[in-house]
Design a protein that fits this description.
300 residues, mainly alpha, two-stranded antiparallel sheet, 2 strands, 65% helix
Amino acid sequence: MTLATSDTATADTAVSLPIPETDDPKQYVAAVTKASSSSFFLPMLVLPRPKREAMLALYAYCRETDDVADEIEDPDESRALIEAWRTEILALYRGAPSHPVTLALAGPIERFGLEQKYFLEILEGFEMDRSGAMLRPTMAELELYCYRVAGCVGLLSVKIFEYEAPSIPAFAEHLGHAFQLTNILRDIAEDAQRGRIYLPAELLDAHGLAGVEPEALLEAKNVEQVCAEIGALARRRFRQASEALPKSERRAMRPALLMRGIYEPYLNRIEANGFRVDGPRVRFGALRKMALLLNALLRL
């Protein structure tokens, strides 16, 4: 695939945003989603086409901007690309998108009233990844990070799902937070290899791990107890999400509940393994995911 570059980058941006050449932005974002092998794709199939296309565009935005923070080793290039994405979002809301992802987002933004601030907050979350802020963050920093990279995605998602109950934004934030904490527990080893420890400093300190370095984390004493406390926080967020979801909104929130049907079992498996950090990442195969989704669907 050949790439063009966007003129949306600011003057002090070191690199421009690469623009994949495609005649079909909707097909592009669908391909990005499918290629990710994420738990996200299957739950979206229950949505009518306009909502499904909107969610695929949202996911592709999150995937491509997250990759800037995670996959690009040059810190200057990573910073510049995050800034280029920020400029592209501003261009999108001025009616001048140029990337296939933002072109695919243009219609859903108008149709569902998606707010610009959440897209920018997501970028701020990935900037926290890139900048090194997620090395033993404070609990407050971890809360902010989870809000940005998961809660804001949830808030955009429920706008696409459409709702009436005023408690649904709280439902979205709690569920997104629970998903992100679960992902943190799944990715302890991988994140340590990248020089990141998402476990909060207060809990590390309480268990005698103040100042622990990423390369020492997996062998550190008591790290499982810290992870167990994060697991308890995730459980609380799942419970708060349930409390914020009235029965009248369960049908509208089906995709979120189907995703929960996969993520809560991830947490169950992690807990059953004793919150160990030295084993393989908890994963479910395609058949297991299908069984979990069917079970969740039957409970709706």
